[in-house]
């Protein structure tokens, strides 16, 4: 199967070819013809499968005909994080270069003025995070009744971040006869319910999960003590042919401390986590993409879905508390046909977490035994009494194995900072959102601060001709 067989226009095929692709991925081959035939789609696919182009490409051809109107975007793509929204915008720029389409990026952390102006001029494609979209909608700056195509991307991630109520509200404001495309790496009951409510006779497409089925990723777990982790990591970084690596930790403090310690050990490391402002996150990510640093220590929220080419290694410095995060983390390597290696550190306290990962991925992750003098004592420490320092305990609301969540102890525990508080049920309280919604009077007077982030590609923030 070639892209030319999918029913896309010649102009679009040319830009796909210019981007270096001639063979569609599985999700693209299955989704593109159906989207062009205006069907609703449920795509069970995660980043790394080429899913972005599976909706961006047909959307460009669908939107090629029609007229823009002020304040009434013709299509809407909802993304859980600003970084993912920016990545989708990059895709539109790349593939839409031969089309006269305009897009706007509506994300938190940037001033609203340019975004409102973009909407007033009329856009074909609006890419938004739910919080910022709701703010503008509630202030009457945007009308959604002209929006005939909706994409809900990374729906399970939206659920984790507490966005489902916002998405339901947004769906109810769009015309009922619109086309809806929903993508999710997993299909928890809340997402299934959302799909049942807002999609009409969808085509269900499921593609292989890179985590469990991507043979390009060699996965290993390493038994190690909490105290021995840093040494084990340094050992692997030095000996496992690492060219570029993303190292995931469960807490922001760990991300910060680990990045610092790696730098002190002479590694070219940076960090990305939710406490950094958008400017700093973008700068660090760019350094990693440009090769100025070869190691990025990251938290889940900051790094979810990021598409960085040629990452040779993923390290789970902490076993993720939620198995979905494992899938997303290791999907940063072994992308688009390349091979990669993923190592997961497992302490004696991670037994339940790693068992959940193995249940989800349907495989027993092979044990990797560290060789070398530095690593061996670290692994043996597992049998030693627990160190007296700060215990790795999950703070309130965190994804932790149930046994760690004794209600009384949790209440007495100081709230340790965390990247996000995942919410597994639609009605659970939202703990942290991508862009906290300030009160309306603050919004109207949102200052234009010099140096405020202006997006990964500044042109995105105002309407740009594609
Ligand atoms: P995504 O799953 O959308 O995050 O895409 C993952 C990566 O696959 C991106 O770097 C895309 O540029 C790349 N990609 C998209 N379509 C194709 C294709 N047909 N063949 C090879 N790589 C692709």
What is the topological layout?
Elements: H1 10-18, H2 26-36, E1 41-44, H3 51-63, E2 75-78, H4 82-95, E3 102-106, H5 112-121, E4 125-128, H6 130-138, E5 149-152, H7 155-160, H8 164-173, E6 179-184, H9 189-198, E7 203-206, H10 210-213, E8 217-223, H11 229-239, E9 245-248, H12 252-264, E10 269-272, H13 278-290, E11 295-298, H14 300-303, E12 313-316, H15 323-330, E13 340-346, H16 351-361, H17 375-380, H18 407-412, H19 440-444, E14 464-465
The structure holds adenosine monophosphate (AMP).
Question: What would you note in describing this structure?
Answer:
Residues 379-407, 415-443 have a biased composition (Basic and acidic residues). With 466 residues, this protein is α/β, with parallel strands linked by helices. It folds into 2 domains: 3-207, Rossmann fold (3-Layer(aba) Sandwich); 211-384, 3-Layer(aba) Sandwich (Rossmann fold), CATH 3.40.50.300. Helix content is 37%, strand content 14%. The strands form 2 sheets. Strands 7-1-6-5-2-4-3-14 form an 8-stranded mixed sheet, with helices on both faces. Strand 12 (313-316), helix 15 (323-330) and strand 13 (340-346) form a beta-alpha-beta unit. It starts with 9 loop residues before the first helix and ends with a strand. 49% of the residues are buried. Residues 21, 23-25, 28, 47-53, 307, 335-336 line the site of adenosine monophosphate (AMP).
